[in-house]
Design goal:
Elements lengths: L1 E2 L2 H14 L4 H7 L4 H8 L6 H13 L3 H4 L4 E2 L4 E3 L5
Length: 86
């Protein structure tokens, strides 16, 4: 199991949003979420069920799931379990 650093996730999400002509603030507004709350989710300060679902949504919206790996599982702690390479 490897840990995906929350800073790396936050930066990857910001880069993906900018590449689509969006900002984190605009994504938050369009999803009726507070930017400060989303920042806390992305830095691991919020890890409850709702926070996890928001994290999964923003990763999906940014199409980052492929970069994490199709076989990876993102758990609430922000860790990524990767399937062993063969």
């Amino acid at each position: 199991m490897s840990t995906l650093r929350d800073d790396s996730l936050k930066l990857a999400i910001r880069a993906a949003l900018v590449a689509r002509g969006l900002s984190l603030s605009s994504w938050c507004r369009s999803n009726n979420l507070s930017r400060s709350y989303v920042e806390k989710i992305l830095t691991g300060q919020r890890n409850g069920p709702r926070s996890l679902s928001i994290k999964v949504k923003i990763i999906s919206d940014c199409r980052l799931s492929e970069s994490i790996a199709p076989s990876a599982h993102l758990d609430p702690s922000g860790s990524v379990d990767r399937a062993p390479e063969q």
